[in-house]
Amino acid sequence: MSNSFEQAFKHMPTPAFIIESSTGNLISYNRNFEVLFENWNATPPDSWLNLSEEANSVEDWQILNHKIQQGNIERCETFIRVGDNLINIQLELQHLEESVLACVYHTDHMDLSAAENTLLKFALTESSAGLWIWETESDLVSCSKSIANLLKCSVEDTPRSTADWHKLVHPDDVQQLDAVVNEHVALNQDYYEAEYRILNGDQEYIWVKERGRTYTKTPGSKIKKVIGFVVDISHQKALEDHLRNQATFDELTGLLTRSSALTHFKKQLGLAKRQYTPLTMAKIHLDANDRLSHLPMESRNIAIQTSARYIYKKIREADVLARVEADKLLLLLPNTSVKDANNLLTNLINPKEDEKAILSEGNSDPTDFCIGIAAFPEDGESIEELALSANQAVEEGQKKCAQIVVN
Fold first, then answer.
1. CA angle (76, 161, 179) in 5-degree steps
2. Buried-exposed string 94-118: b where 16+ CB fall within 10 A, e elsewhere
3. How many CA atoms lie within 13 A of 242 on its CB side?
4. How do residues 271-317 score in pLDDT, each as one tens digit?
5. Do 86 and 79 form a contact (C-beta atoms < 8 A)?
6. Angle between helices 353-361 and 297-314 (to 10 degrees)
7. What is the CA radius of gyration of the chain?
8. d(CA 285, CA 35)
9. Which domains does the chain have, with CATH numbers?
């Protein structure tokens, strides 16, 4: 340790110590770390094993040290032994060449107002932002005054647990929000965001964007605290709804949207009626085996995008393809009999070797497809009736584990 570093280390205001990477021994600590123990009539220990309540062996330190070196953990929360007492602290950990620098912060009484004014200030860049801290083990949620302002209630009436929070979330949005947050914790991720509707004190639902970030972890790398904020995006959502109603193409897949496809569908149906030509409709379920729902959102979107592009390249120029649900497409096949439609779609679920490689790279698998076919006029004389018949065929196909079903 150089003299300049040693002097800075000894006099830094934050209690700190240095651990030897190879052994887990405390090779140095500063005056404020020493004072922390003096206040309890105790002496700083000589190793991580004797300091951390959660360390049971030298191997525990070696595992933690490896995670620090790999950059997988920069901040952890643990109990340390100070004499006969256990103190809950937060450690900021920095890998040095052959050692680790640990700075000590108390976390028993985290002050939200203080947090807003220091490292969490990023969360308050917008006037409508509300800050919260969630302790995963106890499920305790602490909300700032800005959350109370956002929800138009008192600080005392803000949610105190996940269950309290979910009571305010719109019933149609709860499941998705819960899935995003649970995925964040289960996969030990650093960051997540979600958009949903939440009920305020005026009994009105407002759209908010929630951004959460892992704040502290245990020495075992499990997420202990998550911090985040919610921002009122109601005006943005209103604008998006307006633009979406005017939009022609789906943003993710580039296919026609349901509303814009309806115009094309009705035009082709009108031609079939006047010219007495066959017309079939196919409903394509991209995730009939429920595989995509278990993937992270980004991977799921890539899979849907890959599948949509693959199908679009396989259909003919006169065919009309639209994305009508998150994982469902509707395909109109003008001047096409049921037999010809069946042949075309059979080719669709049996890709060539080069196509399989592209699909696999994009998390897509045609064995997940389930396709229902409906014919005009046998299964319906309107677009709505044909779509319903094709959907019923898909449901029948899922029950029978069949990929193509004719209604």
1. 80
2. ebeeebbbbbbeebeebebeebbee
3. 6
4. 899 888 999 999 999 999 999 988 899 899 999 999 999 999 999 88
5. yes
6. 150
7. 29
8. 66
9. 3-106 (3.30.450.20), 112-238 (3.30.450.20), 248-406 (3.30.70.270)
Pairwise CA distance, residues 347 & 341, whole Å: 10
The rounded distance, in Å, linking the Cα atoms of 273 and 279 is: 9
Reported as type and span, the H/E element at residue 182 is helix 171-186
Per-residue pLDDT for 386 more than 70? Answer: yes
Q: 3-class secondary structure for 238-261?
A: HHHHHHHHHCCECCCCCCECHHHH
Place of tokens 């070797």: 353
Distance of alpha carbon 405 from alpha carbon 280, whole angstroms: 13
Take residue 214 and report the two structure tokens written for it: 């892992």
Residue given tokens 């959460």 in the structure block: 212
Please give the C-alpha separations between residue 162 and each of 56, 128, 333, 370, 395, in angstroms, as whole numbers: 32, 21, 48, 37, 35
Angle (CA) 362-366-367 rounded to 5° is 125
Output the six-digit token pair for 45. 């220990």
Burial degree of 284 (CB within 10 A; 0-12, 13-18, 19+): buried
Task: Give tens-digit pLDDT for 307-347.
Answer: 999 999 999 888 999 999 999 999 999 999 999 999 999 99
**Integer CA distances (angstroms), 398 to 304, 371, 404, in order:** 19, 9, 10
pTM of the model: 0.46
Count of residues making up the chain: 407
- Whether the CB-CB separation of 391 and 329 falls below 8 Å is answered with no
Reduced to 3 states, what is the DSSP secondary structure of residue 181? helix
8 A C-beta contact, residue 175 and residue 194: no
Chain centroid, CA 16 distance in Å: 35
